[in-house]
Please model this.
Amino acid sequence: MDVSFLGGPQPQLGVGVVAPFDFALDRELWRWVPDDVSLHLTRTPFVPVEVSLDLARLVSEHETLHAAVQALCAVSPQVISYACTSGSFVAGVAGERAMCAAMAQAGEVPSLTTSGALIEALREIGARRIAVVTPYTKSVTDSLEDYLGEAGITVTGRAYLGLTRHIWKVPYRDVVDMARAAVVGSADALFISCTNLPTYDVIPQLEAELRMPVLSANQVTMWAALRAIGVQAVGPYQALLDPVARRGPAAMSGSDAEGPGEGLPRATPEAAFAASSVPPDGEGLDGLEPPPYPPEDTGGLPPV
Model:
């Protein structure tokens, strides 16, 4: 069959993505991307360090970024995004801006980071007081709160898992439990940190339950990268992406009479779940033996 009349594939816009070496959610990033955009991913070199502030510093060194960006530029992306939350907040607001400048200089294309995209997204939805969920240890979670404070964002409550490895295998059930514990006081939105934490399917459920916008690291990264090239990210029933969702229950903030998550158990402003999630090897955290979660468990959420 002669298909020459088709004229070849349609032109594609390109988004370059620099991810840490242990990033395992390539497919999740693609779910926010329309059909006429391609993602071009590269990873930072492997280092034998567990998830920590030290690792965040190692995977965000300017020399590492320079090499990754130059590799991506071989396929001529229109924008380059650094898809790592901790790596882009560990040096504060000034450090995040320096990363963007270093990448832009290396590739001569617009560049952004997950943490910079987060601040941009919070401004987009008018959120200045947020609850935070992370899979990190306390020290890394503290660093995120410091970064947000520098940017003028107040953390009203937070929950974290205390993990140092295999974050991509955390089930949706744990993400939902942390979100419920973190939303205390009058938060305008919830942020789920870490690009290695799966969130795409859980965002609509949490927005409906908590009655506030829910942002995640991968979501804001793709939203900002696509917006930089004049393209809208796709994601049904997500307030950041869907104006209808933003006007509906998801837009209700903690200033409402009943408050967000009315009827849910109240928690302290910080909740640590260090023993609630299990590394895939089955080893406990801090000497505790957590219950096993089967890899196929999705927290009761149907696949999209």
